[in-house]
Target: Rad21/Rec8-like protein C-terminal eukaryotic domain-containing protein
Amino acid sequence: RLSTPGGDVPDMEDGLTYADMSCPIALFDTKQSTQEDREADDAAADNSKGYSKNTTRALAIVRRELQPVNGQPRAEPMSFVKMSEKATRRAAASFFFELLVLGTRDCVKLSQAGPFENIEVRAKDKLWERMPIPRAEREASAAPSMATSLGL
Model:
């Protein structure tokens, strides 16, 4: 469908659709197709204290977007509409589900003024507790590490 973001883009050779790579949630546009993928995700969930691979990815994105500036919490919330602007429906739905998981685990506060309106995401204290972050997201994070800032 042409009205669907990414809908005018043909499927890739493996049958997966993809979002614009400048979209921060494009990595959520995947199909879990093989038994190996499911077993890898189960192992990742076991290693991350009950958080699935997608939940830890969402956690990394939310942390990066809501990271405090100069030690002060951000005044403006993260916007779901902005995050999913160039995403496919699959990526947006998957990321939305992970936001619900993070909300259930008391990591973020989700609010929406009315039906079909923007969803605002605000950090809660539990978001900053030590939780697993996938290696790729740690390395891709633009935030400097504590060790670097301390000169270690």
Remarks:
- The mean pLDDT is 74.
